[in-house]
Amino acid sequence: MSIGLPQILARYAEATGGRTIEHLVVDREGMGGDFLAGLVTAGCTVVTILRADQYDGLASFSEVGEFVPLRWDRHGNVVREVAPARFALSIPGRSGEHLPLCVALIRDLRCQVPDPAAANASDDPDDPDWLPPRQRWLAGLEPDAQCWWDWDWVATPLPAAPTQAKLIPIVTTATSGDAVALAQVYTARWPQQENIIRDFLLPLGIDTNHGYAKTLVENSEVAKQRTTLEQRRDRLQQWAASARTRSARAYRRADRHYRQQKARGEALYRELNHQQDALYDQGIDSYAIRRIIRERKAEIDAELDTIKAQYWRAEREHEAERRKIERYCQDQGIVLRKLEDLNAREHQMYELSNDKDQVMTVCKVALANLAMWTRDQYFPSDYARATWQRLAPFFELPGRVTWEQATVRVELRPFNDRQLTRDLLALCECVSAQAPHLSDGRRLVLSVAPARARNSELHQRC
Fold this sequence. Notes:
Shape: elongated
Radius of gyration: 43 Å
Strand content: 15-25%
Helix content: 40-55%
Number of helices: 11
Number of strands: 12
Order of helices and strands: HEHEEEEHEHHHEHHEHHEEHEE
Low-confidence stretches: 453-462
Distance between the termini: 52 Å
């Protein structure tokens, strides 16, 4: 859009004799600093919307004014607010230069999004509620819900993340403007854009909805997401139970090795003390006794190190399984929170059976095509571009139909307008000249009834 729009504006000015467009409303695809700066230099005022990656909450805007109601629901509750603000848009390729924009900051109260300010607040170590990263998922939970290592622990949904109303920043390159009027200028294009197809059907008179049957059905997309989350929850429960079993097994093994190490160590060192006393009683030199005791102690330590290595291996396995349990429990809380959020935003879905409307539309399109074919075949040349509104009076004329053995005669009542009556006579002459035949082989003959014919005699319609 940013490449092709200047060419469109130039062609428009050329087609209109040099007339330029001074006010332009574009979608977010045209939201570029260099693109807007070029239009401003050309003297064009642009209204558009910021992209989501160009701002981060209210902190990205300056001079934010007071929010005032913009839209209400059927119950009189405010669903949208708007406030004036300013925004400095950086221009690529121009270091330090910014394009000042006037903003109509819409706050949609019906749509809630995560609050980045609240998420960053938890990273402050001075906060009394601050927790280490591994334990932050326990914040806001009840004391019973924090004992994730217990066998009878039941997962609960994590507390909902702080949210804020969604911001919709409508911007303009104008130096000033009313925030409410600016928001209405941009948002008015949404229904107009959706009504393009409907406006195309209006000239043919086939924009009527003939009704449909509505049946309550399951929301397939929500059901698919719910099934995925429930399967994930069940798997996490199974994994947590298996991890608890492995953790308990590793804990018992570590406790057994610890008790074995302690008992064996006490027995060996008791034996070593008895050996030392016996050597002294034998009168052996103290130097030799120390050497013998030192060698024996090295043998004892080597034997105990083997048992100690088994203990630490079991202890590491126990700690690894505890971390898995904690991770599985945290994931269960996240999944349950997603399930609750999914249920909260789920809407009822209906299956619409618009077969009747489609059949009627096909019939009307066929009739419209028949009318256009009749126009091209039999109407005067100045009706070559006539629409249905201009042709409808001819098809709605009352008249009298006479069915004969080889001919079907249609006698039409003349118009009150002389020009239309002349066109009707020309139509009848053209039909008579071409002598069309109906599907049963009989010839169709059109004529105009004399002006003195009674209206009661021409009550039938062709």
